[in-house]
């Protein structure tokens, strides 16, 4: 049996607020298999984004462990974590975070260029990915000339262009209207099927979980499976 792409075991996290210590995670545990789509739901302020940041190695738990493709992420040094993220992970956020002075293709190619890929090869890969997400006619457009849904498609293409094993998505449709949200969500599901990439999506909208293989709820700092 293949190694799970992402594992979190007994994660604990609390924040200081004045003289109080506020627990956010109280032993959260999950296993994400290769190619699996998992939604993590919970009310606003339940700690979903904190959990996602720890899964990405962007924040440290107070206790517990995260492993990516069998490698210890939480125990890795800062530079090693960055290398693991670059090798295995892609990210989609609620805000697209596209650079306004660059075209859609240039935005998608940027992470490849930063990783040392030659300019032409990076642009060719970026255009190919934009075609895959349905933006063949928008590759040279800057973000200001794109609709909200198109900008988020560019963000999805940027997350996928490095051939990651898992995409971590933080409220990826939260800023879109209902129709565009559904289109972007269905796009992510289709790309998961076509590429074999796993998706872990946190959302407070339980209406956006159709098409996910599993749904986990974060409540009281504990992750539990929903039927």
Could you explain how this protein is built, in words?
This protein is an alpha/beta fold and 227 residues long. The protein has one domain (6-225): Rossmann fold (3-Layer(aba) Sandwich). It has 6 helices and 10 strands; from the N terminus they run βββαββαβαααβαβββ. The protein has helices at 48-55, 78-88, 104-114, 119-132, 148-160, 178-195; strands at 6-17, 20-32, 37-41, 63-68, 71-72, 89-92, 166-170, 198-203, 214-219, 222-225. Strands 6-7-8-3-9-10 form a 6-stranded mixed sheet, sandwiched between helices. A 4-stranded antiparallel sheet has the order 2-1-4-5, covered by helices on one side. Strand 9 (214-219) and strand 10 form a beta hairpin. Helix 4 (119-132) packs across helix 5.
Give me a quick take on this structure.
Helices cover 33% and strands 28% of the residues. It has helices at 48-55, 78-88, 104-114, 119-132, 148-160, 178-195; strands at 6-17, 20-32, 37-41, 63-68, 71-72, 89-92, 166-170, 198-203, 214-219, 222-225.
Write the layout of secondary structure elements.
Blueprint lengths: L5 E12 L2 E13 L4 E5 L6 H8 L7 E6 L2 E2 L5 H11 E4 L11 H11 L4 H14 L15 H13 L5 E5 L7 H18 L2 E6 L10 E6 L2 E4 L2
Parallel strand pairs: 3-8, 3-9, 6-7, 7-8
Antiparallel strand pairs: 1-2, 1-4, 4-5, 9-10
Helix pairs in contact: 3-4, 3-5, 4-5, 5-6
What is the count of structural domains?
Answer: 1
Structural class: alpha/beta
The main pleated sheet reads as: 6 strands, mixed
Radius of gyration using CA atoms only = 18 Å
What is the element string, with H for helices and E for strands? Answer: EEEHEEHEHHHEHEEE
At CATH level 2, the architecture is: 3-Layer(aba) Sandwich
Number of helices: 6
Q: Low-confidence parts lasting 5 or more residues at pLDDT below 50?
A: none
| Major sheet strand order | 6-7-8-3-9-10
Q: Tell me the total number of β-strands.
A: 10
The backbone outline, from C-alpha atoms, is globular
- Secondary structure: helix percent: 25-40%
First-to-last CA distance: 25 Å
CATH superfamily: P-loop containing nucleotide triphosphate hydrolases
CATH class: Alpha Beta
Instruction: Average the pLDDT over all residues and give the rounded result.
Output: 89
- Percent of residues in beta strands: 25-35%
Q: What name does CATH use for the topology?
A: Rossmann fold
């Amino acid at each position: 049996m293949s190694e799970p792409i992402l594992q979190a075991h007994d994660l604990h996290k609390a924040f200081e607020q004045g003289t109080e210590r506020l627990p956010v995670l109280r032993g959260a545990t999950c296993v994400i298999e290769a190619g699996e789509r998992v939604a993590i739901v919970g009310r606003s302020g339940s700690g979903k984004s904190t959990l996602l940041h720890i899964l990405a190695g962007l924040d440290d738990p107070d206790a517990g462990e995260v492993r990516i493709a069998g490698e210890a992420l939480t125990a890795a040094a800062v530079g090693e974590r960055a290398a693991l993220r670059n090798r295995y992970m892609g990210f989609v956020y609620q805000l697209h975070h596209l650079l306004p002075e660059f075209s859609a293709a240039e935005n998608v190619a940027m992470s490849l260029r930063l990783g040392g890929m030659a300019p032409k090869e990076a642009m060719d890969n970026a255009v190919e990915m934009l075609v895959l997400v349905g933006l063949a006619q928008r590759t040279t457009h800057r973000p200001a000339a794109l609709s909200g849904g198109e900008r988020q498609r560019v963000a999805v293409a940027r997350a996928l262009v490095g051939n990651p094993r898992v995409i971590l998505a933080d409220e990826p449709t939260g800023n879109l209207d209902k129709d565009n949200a559904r289109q972007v969500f269905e796009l992510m599901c289709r790309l998961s099927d076509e590429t074999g990439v796993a998706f872990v999506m946190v959302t407070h909208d339980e209406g956006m979980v159709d098409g996910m293989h599993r749904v986990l709820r974060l409540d009281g700092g504990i992750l539990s499976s929903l039927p």
